[in-house]
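Extended Data, panel c. Modelled sequence:
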Amino acid sequence: MTKFRIIIFLLFSGSLHAQQIESYISSLPKGSDLSILVQSVENNPKTLAKYKSDQFKQPASTQKVITALAAELELGRDFRFITRMQTSGTVSNKQLNGDLIIQLSGDPTFTRARLKQMIVELRKKGIEKIAGNVILDTSIFTSHDKAEGWSWNNLTACYNAPPSAAIIDNNCFYATVTPGKVGEQATISKSPNIPVMVTGNVKTIVKNSKDLNDKYCELDVSYSDKNRYHLSGCIATNSNKTALKFAVINGVEYFSTILKNELKQQKITYTGSLLERNQRTNAQLTLLASSQSQPLSELLMVMLKKSNNLYADAIFRTLGAHYYHVQGTWRNGGDAVKQILRKKAGINLENLVIVDGSGLSRLNLVSADKLMEILQYIAAHNTQLRIIEMLPIAGVDGTLQNRKSFNQAPFKETILAKTGYIQGCYNLAGFIQKSDGKYVAFVQLISGYHADRQNEPKNSAIMRFESEFYKNFIN
């Protein structure tokens, strides 16, 4: 059946059925597996296209749509992460008599500049010496800072930065590798104010070398305790530096070192030690200084448009802490999301696997049917939630700004959707806004995608599929 006849069929029947959808799927590489669901947005939604929509697949970053809805319902759009400096002691004669307790909140937006400002506030209160310990209270979260199912070889990548209670400057840093002459060692450098150690043994080789030892010699990074990184392998000769962006693996160690330096710069000393405490306390504390994030609504905007994993997972663990009134973990974060959506939105996700808030975990499992329930609820309550406008806009911003399938007419500025990509998966969950202002909701979950043409970009087939298939639902 030709695509022209398929479109005519749509106009008369109001929906695309499996046989018609399969004609589009045939344009994808062999081995690709598709789940798709398209519905009108109204009180009684009409199904416009449906194909294997009950199958479970890895959501990748479309998981963030679930996280966003749960966060809006539980925390509220005005929620802010608050970092506090407190004490159980007293201040006299320019001395804090007691411990300085820094209550960390897992704020993914916290910066060195905000830390500095808090320490300046201590000085304004006349504190020049702390007669006690400096304690980092990390009790908002407990257990591992890395979720189950995160790919081990991506853990040092910046987009995989663990959402520790202690986060500063995105828990991310740059290092550069400068090739030398062929056969010589490359030079590795980083900013001196970044409190990590980066060493290396990287060989400079000929670009596109045919020597098998060189061909399979790859640039690699390994990690050891206390934020020590070691680069090894090979890099091709080039006149330019190669910038690498790494995740801070040990957030507490990183935060502590920066804190020591900032206290020293402000000439505040302490007689005790700098310690971490991961247990909650009921002691009465006096607030000395505080710093808060922007409201949740602004954080969700960044999380969805930029697909920020650190924001998503910090919010996810916070949901567990907030809903159950205990320390946040990955497990209670997932349970909290399910309970919040069941009780507050009437959406049952019990059969889904929700391991993290970002979609980085390969263990997450969702279906197009359930993601559609999320989208329909968002659309029905968007006056209060305002999540739709937080989604990337085709050809305009976020992860849809340069997506080739949608960055031209008739899709530009018409599609608002969350993208999701991990190896083999090309996912979408969002809306098509028609000329009358009404929406069509759609979910696309593709797994097993691997390009079978070597003479074109690996995503060409999926881009062709999207541009052809979704034309059926414009206006």
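The CA atoms of residues 104 and 116 lie 15 Å apart. This feature is highlighted in the accompanying rendering.
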